[in-house]
Structure to design on (73 residues):
């Protein structure tokens, strides 16, 4: 399975929240640079969310939905 870069994060907690929410929706994904961010400053390029190529479109829709504020509705 091929994985592609979707979004980068400078915050370890935010990255893991989005990762967990996507996984709960059945999206196959993982965080690149996550382990190095735990022990050192965030690496150049940040923590990178990698998503299965076949699920990128749905993942982006979900991320937009997750980030939507109540006043945006």
């Amino acid at each position: 399975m091929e994985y592609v870069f979707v979004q980068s994060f400078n915050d370890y907690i935010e990255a893991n929240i989005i990762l967990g929410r996507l996984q709960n929706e059945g999206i196959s994904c993982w965080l690149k640079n996550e382990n190095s961010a735990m022990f050192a400053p965030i690496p150049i390029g940040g923590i990178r969310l990698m998503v299965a190529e076949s699920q990128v479109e749905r993942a982006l829709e979900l991320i937009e939905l997750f980030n939507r504020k109540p006043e945006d509705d």
